[in-house]
Structure formats: C-alpha cells, structure tokens
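Can anyone check this?
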Amino acid sequence: MPPPRRQPEANQDPVVQRVRIRYAKRGPLRFTSHRDFARAFERAVARAGVPVAYSQGFSPHPKISYASAAPTGAASEAEYLELGLRHRMDPPALRAALDAALSPGLDVLDAVEAGPGALAERIDAAVWRIELPGADPQVIAAAVAAFLAADEVPVRRLTKQGMRTFDARSAVVELSLGEPSAVGAAPCAILDLVVRQVSPTVRPDDILSGLRVVADVVLALPPRATRLAQGSLTAQGELIDPLSADRDGAVTGTSSS
C-alpha cells in the first residue's frame, strides 16, 4: 500500500476512528526532542501507509495530538499520542506497522481505539526513576529526607517565558531511595519519584536542583531519568493507566509489548 498523499484542500475526509498509542523513547533516542519525534512519527505514518486524517484549511496537517511529552534527554516507557484516521484500522495491526516504520529506540508499545473523553484529562501524574551514577546512597538518602521535610523548595529554570522560580516540593507525591545498584564499577543511587502535573511542569532535573538547594548535593556524573508510567492518581495513590478505560470498553482488541 503506497503512502497516503495529502488530500485536496476542499476534499478532506472526516475522522472515522481515533486510536490512542503508547510509545517508548529508549537508549540514545532519549535525546530526540519532541519536535524531532513528531517529524519522525509523521514520516513513519506515511511509510506505514496509515490513512491519517488531515485538518482543513490552506495548510492541512495530520491529525496527531500528543499528551505530556517527556523532556529531551529523558527516557520513557509511557509516552502517549492520539491519531485520527479517515479509514478504520485494527489497533494491533496499526501498532505493528508503526513500530516497524520507526527507528529502534522509538518503540510503539500499545494501541487502542479511543473512547469518549480527552486523553489529556486522564493524565495528572507520572512515575519516574532517576539513576545517579557514582552517587553515595547515604548522601542521597539524607538529601531526600531534607527535601521531604521542607515546606517549599524553590528552584530556578529557564522557560519560554524566561527564567522562572517555582516550588519543586508541592508537586512531589512520593520520593524515595530505590534499591542500590551498580553501573560498571561505580555505585549508583536510585531515586523513585511520583510527581503530579502542575504548571510549570516539575521535571526530574528540577528535583535534582531541589536536592542541591536543601542539601548541596553535587553529582559527579550525569543522571539518567526514565519515565515509567503516566496516568490519573487516585486518593489511594494508585496510578490508573490512561488507556484502561478505552481498553475495557473497546470492541476491537489491543496489543502491548
């Protein structure tokens, strides 16, 4: 099947199916920016022959919407997007076709037909794991205790609106020291983090800046952050998969790997 061409401006087929996709950024591909991934994904859609719908107007764009992309440099097992199609596709077949068309390290893990409601409304928290190669776990444990004990931890970050100061503590639901491990011959401290989505978004590097604020933590080696999950956080602390409602109500099946 040849790649779909853009339809004439006055002849746009409507969206007949919406599919929500979970994908991963792994290995060196974690340094792919969101804009670069979006371009790569659009090329993959064309190579895979996916009948994506386009917007109306002078410059039609494929109907692809992204939810809460991870920052450049962070790996992720839980990135989400929604794809509008002008012809129906079986979600597992769509997942396999897109995964084959993307570079290894940009991996499509799941696809499910979208049900009612907005995808973004189902994501208000994320689970992260931050590896700190060469860091002394006891030093990091003391810094974590000081961070959690603080009422507020102001950090500074350059945003699109310029340099901003904001509180990194209020968004953190959980922060703990994970099981110590080793990377090569060096020790490695592990941070497990659950953080709510706020504005501005509190990112892993903001948490590390917060540890420097409360305990003057200095890292000898670059940290490695991986987003393990996203979803809706319940009052009991359970994170609900944003695709679970679609999967439970779907007529067609889904596939995950």
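Reply from J.R.: I decoded it. The chain has five helices and 13 strands.
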